[in-house]
Every structure is written in structure tokens, then in C-alpha cells.
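Pasting two entries for a bug report.
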Amino acid sequence: MSKKQSVLVTGGCGFIGSHIVDRLIADKSEVVILDNLSTGTIKNLNKSAIFYQGDVSDKILVNKIFSQHKFDYVIHQASKINTNALEEDPFHDLRSSVISTIILSQNCITHKVKKLIFASSVAVYGRSKVLPVAEHGEINPIYSYGISKQTAESYLKYFSNYYDLNFQILRYANVYGPRQPIYGEVGVIAIYTDKMIKNEPLIIFGNGENLRDYIYISDVVNFTVQSIEFKNSSVYNVGSGSPASVNDVFSEFQKNSLSNLKLIYKSERFGEIGSFYCQIDQALKTGWRVEVGLKEGIKRTIGYFNKHNRA
């Protein structure tokens, strides 16, 4: 990417967003962050970025930011994941994914931004009957979070069809790594790291055999930043392509522990999707590769949280 391109990153103080900001800054881009700090933290703020504290669904604020800066690209990361059906907030999902995407799209069109990159989720697939799931697979979200991501994707395609908005939709799998916060039971690797450091039992819901697609943060950042250069509007699964069970995850934690970890099995939670992992052939065709496997990724994550004492 050429130097001094201006990029707006929403959610730039969050887990994934802050890593993307760091990479862009390292690549000599000018970065503006918009984050309401509801899930992100000021500790993640890159001091080299311009920071606005506010909500991306605030149309007046967003319009003002676009009028004050000439953005080449927008990376929309602002969102809060929650895959517990009993604790979801549909109105929050509507604001953070749908309304915000509409506001950003309209501004991108008005101010002739080259591309909008949207952080979607494999949650749009719901309980897939066919594994691994390709981008053309059935879209049938079962959580409000996934429904909002699907709706935002539809609006991006709408703005593309009628207003020539250039977009990239990136359907992230289970992203993990340094800076990942813990919300309820979301983010098993972050949760396990926290419990291991605190010498608390690790919990497995169900029999632990359900498969997931875990992908380390640096691989996600690599693909997200690389997607700036993609010419045609596209949809990509961004996962590891190598499914692992929760039992596999526990096994890796056991290998990284100095003592035998305590393990508790509990009943499977309401609304679980079962096994899920995605096909990443489309992403691989771009030249991108998964560089950090689960074993190394968990080791790095534990090392980070031990060092920063922030699990």
C-alpha cells in the first residue's frame, strides 16, 4: 500500500481494530479512529492516530468527520459480538452493524472514498448443514448478531449496485489473540487464558467435540489490510481452514501449563450452533496464507497475557 493514504477505522480501539490500526500506522498510513469505547479501551489507542470518541451510528458526528478528512479507505470494525441467545441486544446490533453501515456507505459515496471494508462474521451462516462452509453457502443466521451482519452485507451490495460503492465483506471466523476482551462466554481462548492465570478450572460446555475455526489475530490483520488492494467488490471467509474442537484447545492449554489444569464439563448452552468451520479457498487465491497455527497462537496469547497481566 502506498504511503500517506488516509484510512478511517471504526472500532479502532477494540481487539481487532486496534491491531489493524497498528499495522496501518506501521505502513505509514494516516489513520483516523472512531470508537465509542463501549467495548474497546483507550489503552489500545495508537497515539499516532487521530481519535474521535463517539458512536458510528451518530450520523451528525460521522458526517462531520468525513467533511474534515479526505479518506481513501474506510475499515468498519465497530461491533460487539455476542452469541448467547439469551443475552443479545438486537437494538444495539441494529445500530452498530446496520445503521452504522448505511451512514458510512452514504458518506463513502458522497466523498468518493475508494473502498469500504466491512468486518462481517461467519455468524451469517447459522447452523450450516454443509461443512466447510463456502461464501456461496446458505445464509441463515440464528443470532441477532448474525442477522445484523447479514443485513449490513445486503445494504453494502445495494449501495454497490445503485451507487457504485466498492466494498470488501470479510466474514471473520473465531478470531483470538492479544488484547481480546472477555464478554460473558465469548472467546474461549481468552477465557481459558484468564482462568489458567488465575488457577481456576477451565469449563467445557457439552462434550467438547464441536468444531470451530480459530484464527490468530495477525492473520486476520494481514488479510484485512491486504484487502485494501483488491479491485473488485467481493466476499471472503477469513478463517484458518483447520477446524479444532474445544477439547483440542484445552489440550493445548494443558501443554502450556506448569501443572495439571482443572477441567469441568457442563451442559451445552442454549442456542449453540454445533460444529462450524469455513472454506477459505477464495482467500487463499489472493495469495494470503495462514501463518500462525493454533498451537503457536495459543502459546503467543498466553505469553502476552502473562506479560501484561491483563487476561
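Entry 2 (this is the one that rendered wrong in the viewer):
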Amino acid sequence: PNGVAEPEPDGDRTRLRAELGLPCTGPAIGFVGRLCPVKGVETLLHAVSRLRGRQPDVRLVLVGDDADGGAYRRHLQKLAQGLGLADTVRFCGYREDAARLCRGFDVQAVPSVAEPFGLVTLEAMVRGVPVVATASGGSREIIRDGVDGVLVAPGDPSALAAGLAAILADTERAGRLAVAGRRRVRSCFSLDRQVAATERVYRRLALQAEHVAHHRHHAVYDQLDGDDG
């Protein structure tokens, strides 16, 4: 599996929230990734719309952009406005330092319909940010539901809203998940572990290739020796 390096200090939470255009207080949900249908951002917007009824001061930060000239981003902005979230959602666009910014979130959402692995999940967890992700693809490999994160059904705004609300409403639980998530990444998904595992694969393949070449050499030698005889 992929791994992430131990992060450098990213600055204090108040400054990060200011960078994100967030008030100093109040619940903040973050999303980091490309804006496209498979990432489930529309589901996230509908989930936040449901959540806002219980937590009017909630904010959603979308870090990332689309790949089609802004058409999908404009679609999402129109959807947010239609859901009454114009003042709730902050579109930050693409940021090279997206991983650093996630420390300004209270929870990170990974609402993908399908997620091959999810480095953004690891980057949040190693920084002590609890994650609510959909039980699809690689997220099920990374997160153990209720132990070091929360998994919900993909494409279900109500389930996503409930998962987010459970963390935002219970700071003690959020803290436990944050600590467990950081421990999970350090023990199973560190960059050092990835490098070591990849090196073992290459060494094993090299030994296999050497073994095959050795046997081929002797097979050719034996054949030539037989022909000479």
C-alpha cells in the first residue's frame, strides 16, 4: 500500500483557519481532492445541507478544482446556492499545500463513489484529523470503522450527514479517532514502510530472475555438451 511521510509542523489552527477563510470558532468540514462526480462532492453538499439544520454555524471547505475548465466547479457552486449553502461553502481551488491545510478542519470528508486508495485520507489521519469516508475501494483498507475513522455508505447524504454530525457533536470521540488514526498511519501506512516493502518486492524479483537465468545457462550448456558428445 501507499504511504505518507511524517508531516512537518503546519502552524497553529487559528492561522490555518484564517487562510481558509474560516472563523476562529465553529465546526469546519474539509474536503481535499479533484472536483468531479466520482469524488462524491454533490453527496457531500446534500449532507451538509441536512447537517446545517442541526448546526447552523457549520462550514464546508472544498480544496481542489476540476479538470474541465471550471464547468463542474460552477455546477457545484450553483448546487450549493440552490441548497442555501452559499455562505456555508468555501471553494478554495487547487492548493499545492492542501495536506497542510487540513489541520484547520474539525473533520475531513472523503465521500467518493469509488476511491482507488486515498492519500488524502492518510494525510488527514497522520495530522490528527478524524475522517469520515465512504466504504468504497481503498478507504475500507485504510479505515477500521469506529476504531480509527468512520465509514458510511457511498452516495447516501443522510448516512454521510450522520457520520459527520457524530464527530462534530462529540469532541471526546473525535479526539479518540484522531489519536487512533494517527497511530494507524504510522504503524501501517508510513512512507518508510512503503519503501521497505517495495524494495523487498524488487529484491525478490531480482533473485527470481537470477535463478531463472542460472537454470537457462546450465540448460544451454548441457545441450551443447550433449551435441559435442
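Dev reply: Rendering is fixed now. As a check, the viewer should reflect this: DSSP finds nine helices and six strands in the chain.
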